[in-house]
Amino acid sequence: MPDPTLEAAAQTRPAVSARQGTLTAAFERCGPGLHTGRHAQVRVCPAPAGHGILFRRSLKRERTADVAALWHYRESQPLCTALRSPGGVLIRTVEHLMAAFSAHRIDNALVEIDTEELPIFDGSATPWCEGIRAAGRTELDAARPMIRIRRPVEVRDGRRSLRIEPCGALQISAFLELAHLGPMHWSGIIDPDTFDRDLAPSRSFGRLKWAVPLKIYTFITRKPVLRGANLATTAGIVGGRVVGGMKVPDEPVRHRAMDLVGDLALAGHPILGHVSAAHTGHELNHALVAALMTEPEAWELV
What GO molecular-function term can you cite, just one (predicted)? Predict the structure, then answer.
């Protein structure tokens, strides 16, 4: 159930903007990808009302391929959120940027990238948030449609579950329990300040005892999975501790909540609803979006 205190806050403060937003100026970021390890150059540009979030990948011979950040272009890929263009071109690991866009109410942007995968940085969304804040947000002369949940929708996979129900803002309550680390919780309303403070610093994580053999396997098979993963780009877990310590309390569950914000953004409009998440991951996140989008009686566009 929604937290009554947070629900009251959602009703009494402006959790969403009435007008669509875009960036005031363009900004650039670069770095290696988590899975391909390839260096990427990204330019994030303003876009007009109704444009949405569009990824544009540069190809050989000065060609480009576009793919909109919408749920029906999503393609299942290991340990990330990926989009496949109508022409078959892949863009992967978009979830951290999408989460930053969603939290900062950037509805329209053109993201130009020169390779397959967005940079992972230190495994967090903070560099994207810093870029958005520095660029600024400009309101556009167009209403901002929002998806208001009318009745609960739930998806499950064993102990993994996601449930969304009516709420006056996007509120997330997340739970995760990892061996040796114990139960972890995070709950909050998603707005720019809360996101930047509580969720954006949390890093992609994994247990070293599984990551090292997987990296060796993917190197031998030449599969682009975790080639860029190291202790500079992810939070490595050994037993009951995170190597170097956690950047925020209960960092793993906060990162799962951050990924969830980015995956929900593929619905195409801001969502007003409370999401209860237990042991969720990308596959279940996208299952919830698909279930919601295919049950039009469960929501309304307002």
Answer: metal ion binding
